[in-house]
């Protein structure tokens, strides 16, 4: 028996996915969201439902959520089972999990149906498209919005895990302006363009930025490498890898222990922040060969200023297709675009 095709299936549950769901639901498309599975593998790689923002504490740059006491807003906006967030709420601003629960609730309020599972396999060869979840559920859809995001690469040190949100960060733009990093020495790991960008950005706040690089030359483009050399606050520590992030529970990160790739000697640096800039991995493993990906395995947007992909009827939003801006608000913005693109595509097809 053929299954009835959904109009829109949204895969992913970060700001892009929920914004797409809010717009699609309000356009009467009755979206179905696969928000991801709660599995140990997803926990370990940082791809649990609600996305990357749910992994962080303060979010100071999402418009509409200034610092302040949101307790009453949370109490009236969220169902009782999510009121535990109110206890966690800090008046400093909105937290990542709060923001994500509110987005999910807003999508559900408009009738979005939600399945807590991963999509493991897709078939985009013919209409309607077919999707199979990790649990084996088969779904057919006329239109698909991919919003599976990306994950920051870490060094996989135990000490790095211990100080996440307490001095360890993978996003300078997100966290650089926090008080704990101001006028303090900071460390950036990496040697590519984005490492220079992160170091340069952090130098606005830090007293000094050490860039740790395992080679004797940056991988960054010439112009970016020159920017690092010209910035008096940036010191490049050549030929070193990170052995350990140093710190304690009260203060978080207090420094790093480095190891020379030349003679294996170790040295320590004092720093209150440890920023990773060694790339991101888009969550596209299940999309290999199904549609066009970029060299770095991001979904390729094929029309300028639109969210179209190489498959007609499949749209992409957020970090899964964007390796440049990588912010919650840009992900939400492209989620809105994808829902509008999907709605117009369905209307044009008479579906
Ligand atoms: C620690 C940290 C702090 C940050 N702080 C800020 C900040 O302060 N301000 C800011 O603007 N940005 C911040 N960012 C960046 C921001 O979180 C991301 O840009 C944003 O979350 C991207 O949203 P997205 O919707 O594209 O996807 P994501 O947030 O990456 O979410 C996608 C989710 O989809 C789900 N998924 C993945 N694969 C599948 C699948 N096969 N099937 C079903 N579901 C799947 C997973 O649950 C995944 O987590 C931070 C990022 C990190 C890591």
Description:
With about 350 residues, this protein is of the alpha/beta class. The chain is about 25% helix and about 25% strand. It has ten helices and 19 strands. The strands form five sheets. Strands 1, 2, 5, 6, 7, 8 and 19 form a seven-stranded mixed sheet that branches. Strands 10-17-11-12-13 form a five-stranded parallel sheet. It has a three-stranded antiparallel sheet with strand order 14-15-16. A hairpin with a 5-residue loop joins strand 15 and strand 16. The radius of gyration is 21 Å and the shape is globular. About 40% of the residues are buried. The site of flavin-adenine dinucleotide (FAD) has 41 residues, from helix 1, strand 9 and helix 10.
Give the cofactors and ligands: flavin-adenine dinucleotide
Task: Supply the number of helical segments.
Answer: 10
Derived from helix and strand composition plus strand pairing, the structural class reads: alpha/beta
Radius of gyration: 21 Å
Query: Using DSSP, what is the number of strands?
Result: 19
Q: Classify the helix fraction into a percent range.
A: 25-40%
User: Could you report the average pLDDT, rounded to the nearest whole number?
Assistant: 94
Order of helices and strands: EHEHEHHEHEEEEEHEHEHEHEEEEEEEH
Biggest sheet, in brief? 7 strands, mixed
Distance between the termini: 21 Å
Q: Any low-confidence stretches, pLDDT <50, length ≥5? A: none
- The 3D shape can be described as globular
* β-strand amount: 15-25%
């Amino acid at each position: 028996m053929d299954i009835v095709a959904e109009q829109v299936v949204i895969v992913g549950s970060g700001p892009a996915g929920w914004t797409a769901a809010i717009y699609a639901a309000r356009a009467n498309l009755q979206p179905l969201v696969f928000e991801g599975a709660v599995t140990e593998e997803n926990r370990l790689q940082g791809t649990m439902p609600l996305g990357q923002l749910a992994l962080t504490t303060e979010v100071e740059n999402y418009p509409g959520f200034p610092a302040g006491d949101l307790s009453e807003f949370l109490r009236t906006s969220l169902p009782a089972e999510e009121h535990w967030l109110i206890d966690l709420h800090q008046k400093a601003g909105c937290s990542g999990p709060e923001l994500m629960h509110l987005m999910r609730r807003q999508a559900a309020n408009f009738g979005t149906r939600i399945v807590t599972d991963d999509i493991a396999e897709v078939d985009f060869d013919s209409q309607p498209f077919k999707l199979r979840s990790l649990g084996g559920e088969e779904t057919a859809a006329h239109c698909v919005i991919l919003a599976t995001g990306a994950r920051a690469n870490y060094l996989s040190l135990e000490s790095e895990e211990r100080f996440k949100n307490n001095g360890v960060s993978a996003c300078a733009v997100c966290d650089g302006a926090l008080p704990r990093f101001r006028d303090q020495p900071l460390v950036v790991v990496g040697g590519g363009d984005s490492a220079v960008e992160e170091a340069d950005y952090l130098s606005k706040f830090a007293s000094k930025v050490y860039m740790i690089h395992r080679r004797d030359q940056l991988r960054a483009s010439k112009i970016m490498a020159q920017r690092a050399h010209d910035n008096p606050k940036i010191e490049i520590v050549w030929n070193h890898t990170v052995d350990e992030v140093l710190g304690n529970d009260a203060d978080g990160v207090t420094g790093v222990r480095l190891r020379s790739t030349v003679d294996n000697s170790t040295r320590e640096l004092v720093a209150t922040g440890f920023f990773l800039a060694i790339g991101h991995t888009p969550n596209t493993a299940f999309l290999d060969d199904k549609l066009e990906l970029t060299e770095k395995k991001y979904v390729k947007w094929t029309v300028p200023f639109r969210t179209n992909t190489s498959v007609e009827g499949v749209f992409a939003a957020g970090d899964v297709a964007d390796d440049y801006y990588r912010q919650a608000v840009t992900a939400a913005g492209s989620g809105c675009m994808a829902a509008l693109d999907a709605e117009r595509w369905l209307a044009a097809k008479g579906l």
